[in-house]
């Protein structure tokens, strides 16, 4: 009863809570503005699925690179410092899309995304534990789920911008009456002109985003934020790392998070290729991603509410099993039903990231900052797994199945790992309580 009545967010810190929560939407926007760019770059730059998936390698690789440095800076200074640095790097990376489009170099775009996600690593390493600390520890996981509920709102806006302002405007994705790409039939000069146009189309939302992030930076810089950092600013990363590694729930939580992020990014990135295999144009295919995100948002709020009555670990187990069922259908069922199941998978992914995060950090004490960095580094799953899925898709067919269908065996495996973590943590919880 006490847990149910505990305050999730105190009114005294409501404004700072809202400001920090807005960051969840801000990095969600970047994530899902970028996911469809794999398909966009593949066509306009005339590269393979595997090479195009390097967009995700650069994007999520930035998290792995900067998470630990971000944690050390936050530990040494403050959460607010980490947020300001994160927003600055975010803005720089986004604004670098302008020269990248001018030079028309794929590697330049990758570098821009890499720097942009340096900023996101700072924001996530800061915002997640900051939200957890803003109130009663008994409601920490619920509070994080509440804040994380606004992340997919930014995501769905990013998807909308990608669909309506980018993908639908790409000349390289125009098709003839038979449904074939016209771009493939053009000569080099015609392709070059279209490439210049399309890279500018891709560039513009990122540049606008960069200026918006600067505005957010200024607002947070002048706002008074609650101090939740430790009074001890001494940095002992090696000792913290050893304690964290000995914590089985935390250690396995990092592994589960790697697989969760991999599953999420694969499902949301390659839904376009899955639909394309059914003859659906990219802009129209992105609409399925938008529906998936709407389902994700609704499920996130519902699951957050249900946590008042059901154990978070048990819910994680059930949702992972649900994800296993839907992705198995995606692999085995061809046609629109497989696509519908891929969309439905988002309902089961909804609670996973914040729930794994909250469970893993429950008993880490003063090691929370470095522990949070480890969980942010786990986002590297989104860098490593999509290129592997792209390699599978490039095979065309595997046995009796289209390779794009078979490639979703990877998210299925990810959900198996998450289910195991949910089961193990639930069993551990029951033995204590």
What class would the helix/strand composition place it in? mainly alpha
Query: Main β-sheet: number of strands, strand sense, barrel status?
Result: 2 strands, antiparallel
Helix tally?
22
CATH topology (level 3) name: Growth Hormone, Chain: A
Q: Spans of 5+ residues with little confidence (pLDDT < 50)? A: none
Order of helices and strands: HHHHHHHHHHHHHHHHHHHHEEHH
CATH C-level category: Mainly Alpha
CATH architect. name:
Up-down Bundle
Estimate the mean pLDDT confidence: 89
Helix content: over 70%
Radius of gyration: 21 Å
Estimated share of beta-strand residues: under 5%
Name the CATH superfamily assignment.
MFS general substrate transporter like domains
Our measurement of the CA-to-CA distance between the termini, rounded to an integer number of angstroms, reads 15 Å
DSSP, total strands: 2
Shape: globular
**Largest sheet, spatial ordering of strands:** 1-2
Tell me the count of domains. Answer: 1
Describe this structure in words.
- This protein has 433 residues and is mostly helical.
- The chain has one domain (8-224, 235-432): Up-down Bundle (Growth Hormone, Chain: A), CATH 1.20.1250.
- The chain contains 22 helices and two strands.
- It has helices spanning 2-5, 14-34, 37-44, 49-52, 54-76, 79-95, 97-103, 106-133, 140-148, 151-166, 188-222, 237-246, 248-269, 271-276, 282-306, 312-332, 336-349, 352-360, 368-377, 381-393, 403-406, 409-432, and strands at residues 397-398, 401-402.
- A two-stranded antiparallel ribbon has the order 1-2.
- α6 packs antiparallel against α11 (188-222) and α7 (97-103) packs antiparallel against α8.
- It is globular, with a radius of gyration of 21 Å.
- It comes from Draconibacterium orientale.
- InterPro entries: Lfuc_symporter_FucP, MFS, MFS_trans_sf, MFS_TsgA-like.
- It is a multi-pass membrane protein.
- The chain crosses the membrane at residues 12-30, 50-74, 81-99, 105-123, 144-167, 206-223, 253-275, 287-307, 314-333, 339-361, 368-388, 400-421.
